[in-house]
Predict the structure.
Amino acid sequence: MGAKWSTLYTEIPKAQATGKLDLRLEATACRIEHGKDGRANAVVYRDRQGFEQRQHARIVCVAGNAIETARLLLLSESSQFPNGLGNSSGQVGRNYCHQITGFVWGIFDKPIYSWRGATLAGVVEDEAVNNLSRGFVGGYRMELVTLDLPTLPLVGLPYGWGRDFTSVIENYRNLSGMFINGEDLPRSQNRITLNPQIKDSLGLAVAHVHVEEHTNDQALRTHAQGQMRRMFEAVGANRVVEGPTPPATHNLCTARMSRGPEDGVTNQWGQSHEVKNLFISDGSALSTPGCANPTLTIVALALRQAEFIAGEMKAGNI
Ligand SMILES: Cc1cc2nc3c(=O)[nH]c(=O)nc-3n(C[C@H](O)[C@H](O)[C@H](O)COP(=O)(O)OP(=O)(O)OC[C@H]3O[C@@H](n4cnc5c(N)ncnc54)[C@H](O)[C@@H]3O)c2cc1C
């Protein structure tokens, strides 16, 4: 009904109305090409029928999500950029972050009907601070949350079987949920690389994701679970259930902003340090995940980048 923002009915229709948007649906970008001057000059993609196409470009903006953006830059290696486009410093794919997430459930005597209304209906920000006396750096948000019934046992509950497990599901009506959204640490060894063994249906190497949790991440999660338990118990929960770490949904930081190329991929505008007409326009460019859900920050940075690009194009700098 238009109450929530989405590019599908905000930016894209507006851009279409200018008559200057050419939207290529179901196309897969396979590599970004460059000229002898080291500037990006085309994107090679497969169209919806699977035919290879080449789109020449004055500038290229990549927004494939942190794993696929890193993969596309790595796939775009050449004799001039043997480690991947814009990757002379080896920073592309590094510092992969996905925020510390997890669910805690409180079971009450009376119905909660958590599925009614907004999915994420409230946020507690008291712990979204850097307070070293808690024994870890970074902070987290506690978010009221609901999961639909089929998804609940898949990602929200500890794996189990038998009465103990099913009794949680039987109490679905009386269940109240909270979600941890915490800050994980950017670490160089947590990274996206190309898998030399496994190819996708187009014959391109798939992404390999390497992640090790830092003890700081574990300490943050344990603290968050403890605070949520205290909150649920304070308002009368009969039972509190902690979920496992769910699959990563907030993929970030794999082509991060930095002052110089030695420890990042882009400048403060998301512009590649190395290839001046190549821009990173998605969550890959964040230099830290923070503890807020990332989308609005990603969008704000993309809008800011668009203004920068317009100015640079007008000035003839790119
Ligand atoms: C279940 C779930 C719940 C979430 N809830 C929230 C929330 O409540 N709040 C919040 O802020 N964030 C939430 N997120 C996170 C949020 O969706 C992401 O952080 C955000 O969408 C990332 O934006 P992006 O531009 O980096 O990538 P995306 O939005 O993922 O866009 C990348 C696009 O690139 C396309 N693509 C990739 N590779 C190629 C290629 N080679 N060629 C062509 N196209 C390509 C993809 O198909 C995709 O359309 C959630 C994510 C999930 C999965």
About this structure: The mean pLDDT is 96. Helices lie at 11-17, 66-75, 151-156, 163-170, 215-234, 295-314. The chain has six helices and twelve strands.
